[in-house]
């Protein structure tokens, strides 16, 4: 029972940090702004981090006990932690190492024995080797209704077989209380996800599409974990190219307010034409350079022309976001511009900025080129902006985790910016402590020829066209399957949206983001294999099983009982229960493909259960329990879709 466990855990709030809970568990920010110098700040941050890292598992657990949930892995960790305290009382800080296992000996394994043995041997221990340590860990486990049996294997691995009753009860509890009770609990309150971030007047390319899709998923996972997420569109809306664009605008539209989207047409073509003019006409170039100065000096007419160009681009970007159902808040490069001088001055005062060939730079250990923070002409650049943005996010927005989603090509840039921030004491030294900055890199999108993705005859791929094609193909498939006669126009449209855009997203997310992936409509829209179409249909099928039963599922949840007797039922139940730790892993390691793998396996395991004649659902004497299992599968699948930004469908 859990009560006996409580006795084994050391008395709680002796240290102030043991009291921090979900609501106040990351109290860095106020102290950060109160710190008077970088070294003060560093001390505050690192002290809190050490404490936070140490106490985090305890905190998470205390909260879990309150909420009675948390992942299976975390709950087992809590039980094993209690055993470890008794088994090796002189080793107080041993983190329980718990892993799910696929072998036939158990569902989970505790792998602490070997590591512990190497720590304690020669220190006068009574144990005779890792198996004995494992045996003691097993024997010291407090009784828990979670565990059915334990055994020790090989060099001290403690295998755990979960109790079927406990598993069934936990799933039913989730059905009643909602899937939110299975959300991860990352140790941060506020995060910035900097994603999508195309450049004004330039092409929004497939790289930006990847960033949009991956960033949205990461934001969704954090939001599900009750983190406040600032979804930042760091658009490239500042820089010297605007002089050229503005001058060209004045030239083409003497009354520049008339230059609407329809008048300009394609802003990319406009950009190209103005660049041509810039490169070939010295007088124009001169005027363009003047225009930048006047724009940056804040001259009204120039600001308005700039704003207009931004607005036209924005309308174009919006079409993509609207199709994908992605929400972003724009804070472009221009927003941080006023902060740059102060931030650089601060870094200079700390002695971090040096002079190199007329430019001001920060040298970074292990990198042979320095980070240029002021160009030799006195202007600021991409790096200056990113430093100011990072400063702002940490100090003004009080973000504890700042996540940047761009192609891997920008990895070095972010690596240097983060290292500079560490030198400045804005971020702690260790990579796993908070506040933390993470670069989420991704590979290229390739065409079927294995080269960078392009459409047949044009240079660039218009993202809107690409998405429209996904939708129209999925609509055609629906019509082909005779849905035109059975469904309303609206149903066809919304299903085509869900399937088409879902397919594009899933094809991207299912790969490890660091690898390049090949864009192929036929593959992503296939209704077999690991595709969104297959998964969406699998979900719709489950919904139709429940509908066909004619039962009120709410009533079954509250009055019926879920049991996991058959092996296929138990396998499905176990997989459902692992949802919490999988999302946690996907979120901690910023890897959406982990969640995709889980979802695909879920539908496979469900099929195995459902197609087994021994597990007949409708009309069997286990109907209630099995319908509840179907419902739990549908609920978990829907949450996966939701986290992946995919709209579920309910009928096929
Ligand atoms: N605008 C950049 C690009 O298109 C991406 C910006 C990413 N975010 C950042 N804070 N640098 O490559």
TrEMBL record:
Residue stretches making up the DALR anticodon binding domain: 535-652
CDD domains recorded: Anticodon_Ia_Arg, ArgRS_core
Domain of life, source organism: Eukaryota
Domain Arginyl tRNA synthetase N-terminal: from-to ranges: 74-162
Alphabetic keyword roster: Aminoacyl-tRNA synthetase, ATP-binding, Ligase, Nucleotide-binding, Protein biosynthesis
Name of one Pfam family that matches: DALR_1
Catalytic activity: tRNA(Arg) + L-arginine + ATP = L-arginyl-tRNA(Arg) + AMP + diphosphate
Annotated EC: 6.1.1.19
Keyword check for Lyase: no
TM segment ranges: none
Cross-referenced HAMAP family: Arg_tRNA_synth (MF_00123)
Family: Belongs to the class-I aminoacyl-tRNA synthetase family.
Protein's name according to its UniProt entry: arginine--tRNA ligase
